Amino acid sequence: MCMAFYETGFDTKAIDRHKGGSKDYGIFHINSGLWCKENSALSKAICDVACSDLLNPDLEDDITCAKKIVKGSAGMAAW
């Protein structure tokens, strides 16, 4: 919960653009370069979820993806 507060202030519609072209989406700021599907061939979409689906108040897909990120080798350092 602390990470969501500090990343977005609990804003489910948050989008942050990076210089490299990727974006962070939703309450957990899930990155389009690795985790969610964007209209870009560069997106790996490891969570197999559309980035736009991370911008609604239904947090089920956001939580599922965040758990997958945390279980990865970088853990919480992924943020």
TrEMBL record:
Species for this entry: Crotalus adamanteus
SUPFAM superfamilies on file: Lysozyme-like
Glycosyl hydrolases family 22 (GH22) domain boundaries: 47-65
Keywords, alphabetical: Disulfide bond
Presence of keyword Disulfide bond: yes
GO molecular function ontology, one term from the record: lysozyme activity
Recorded family membership: Belongs to the glycosyl hydrolase 22 family.
Name under which the protein is recorded: Glycosyl hydrolases family 22 (GH22) domain-containing protein
